[in-house]
Amino acid sequence: MTAELVRGQNHPLSQARLEIRISAGTPIVAVAALGDENGRIHGAEWVAHPGAPTQPGLEVPRQAAADHRLAVDLDAVPEAVHRVSVLLALPAGGTGPVRFGAVAAPFVAVTGLDGGEIASYTITDLEAESAVVALELYRRQGAWKVRAVGQGYAGGLAELLTDQELPQAHQLARSINDAVSQGLARSVQAPPPRTADGDRSRQAAAPALGPDQAGTAPQPAPVPPMPPYGGRTPGGPGQPAPQQPSYPGSAPDHDAVTQPSAPTSGGPIDYSHPRRQNAAPPPPPTVPPAEPGQPARPVAGDATGWSMEERLYNQVWGMFEDLARTTAAYRSAADFAESRMDKELEQVLSDPRSRIGGQGDAAREAARARYAQLVAQAQEALDRDLAQLAAEADVVEPALPPAYARWDSPAWHAYRVPMEIPMALRLGDLHLPEADRIRIPMLVRLPLERGLWIDSGSAGSSDGSFTDSHAMSRLALETAVAHAARLLAVYPAGEFTVHVIDPAGSGAQPLAPLVRTGVLAAPPALGAAGVADVLGRLTQRVDLVQMAVRGGAADSLPPGFDTSQQLVIVNEFPHGFDDRAVNQLRYLADEGPAFGVHLMMVADREQSSGYGPLLDPLWRSLLRLTPVADDHLADPWVGHAWTYEPSLVPPGSLILQQVLSQVATARTKFS
Length: 671
What we know:
Layout (H helix, E strand, L loop, with lengths): L2 E3 L4 E3 L4 E19 L11 E2 L5 E2 L2 E2 L5 E9 L9 E7 L17 E6 L4 E6 L8 E10 L2 E11 L2 H8 L5 H14 L72 E2 L51 H43 L7 H42 L24 E8 L8 E6 L6 E4 L13 H22 L5 E6 L10 H6 L9 H24 L14 E9 L5 H13 L5 E7 L12 H6 L1 E3 L4 E5 L6 E6 L8 H16 L1
Parallel strand pairs: 1-10, 13-21, 16-19, 16-20, 17-18, 18-19
Antiparallel strand pairs: 2-12, 3-4, 3-7, 3-8, 3-9, 5-6, 6-7, 8-11, 9-10, 11-12, 14-15, 14-22, 21-22
């Protein structure tokens, strides 16, 4: 049962591995500080912040966001540490609020790794403060407790850190604010306002799922990684920011939605390509004026961008923002109507004279009528916006290129192996309960910034229809094959290589399209020896490229070295994996993406629980996706739980075979 704390109250902690979830009405900065037995912070190295997000036993987000998840391992903090303080601050120098009194009261919850809340605290009575010590975890007689603090500071982080007796507090506060400013491309900002009906301020989104994952979602696993746009925001449309999300692992596992990369926040896209340094993107195409009183007619590619692909990418992200915004407005209006009705009914009941008789009945009927009127007005506005979005989706979907299109799109029938890498890749669709007909493509930026985890657990089905573990495992591997085939299809010939690890050989049938067409680097690796061989070669590859890049000798790699992006699909984990192989997986998940090696796990986390906390960093670093529809991705703006549906090949379709055959033919010519 959750302990709802008030200021000064404490509560014992029975777990060492925790997650601290923070929710606010505006993007905020989350910082965690380590203190000694007197609460003193000895130096900047005792503080985890966006510029240095990890410290022993701590991991904080790298950006400002409306929702955060902090990872804490109390067993991993140094012996000298007796206190872990969670600090929140409003970004300095931005365009947002400058005091907590102008926003909703921040909410902080301490949860276990299973997502169950242990203690929560709503930080009330804040006014002019721009920084606050939210809560602290402290060691007392060998046991850990959590205390609600809520101490605010009008002078911001500098005053807060000075009060914590930190040497050079002002310098550290400046470095934190600088890190946040430089990372505003990753910050999750409020969606741009509508300028008129049917007219959006289109702009590229900030990067995500993502679980965070989780946002962690990311990371919405996000959201992603767009929403889940990758992620990193949901993580273009999934890194749900919006893949922090953004793109992860509680029930429900709301990964932070990941989001598309963008160098600035709150303004136009900063196109910093070397050939575009002094140029502005061309304006969107001219849209014919609408009839008076009618919404603007949707046009595919009506966002800004240098190419149709870029304009469609930004347009899809704009559709995600609009759907998130209009749904949030509807839910807020409905909640307000209900709270108002409850208050009016409470007032009626509080007066003994109106509890019985005609006067009381009339007051109750009037309250219910006002509630129905407010909800009807909100529904009318929602229906109007959804109709416009549905019309836009009907226009945009057929115009999407293969990288963004569903597998049943005619675009794939005209497929040719590309000469350039696209901006992003579609991993599925996102939708909300209020707008089930509208599907927003979940796009993640390329090259992938984090690996993928295809959850084969039976809990991945939101409707509980998949209870057969074998059916879920097969469907999860088919989903992984569809994602891998899309990656192979959107890269130029010879620039993407796929490896498969199938220790038990149980995935022969789902893997058949990859094997028969010859697009794999080698047949699927079998047994423990195959696992060791593939992971050993890829680990050595990452080491070699890492040394070459960091040593400034990237052009001195051995002759014939394969410089293509590498993807390894791991099926039926943990079968066939020893401790060395597990450590290699973690290494590839952490270091691989930066050096061209990506991981795609097909696994049921419960089946790998025998490895204990050793695998937690691995799962957190991957974007969790499901082979069935599931609402595990969340955007960090308003916390919508987005339902994710994978992009699968229609039953009986031969398009996957045709596309992979073209890829194999082009690869033969290339080599």
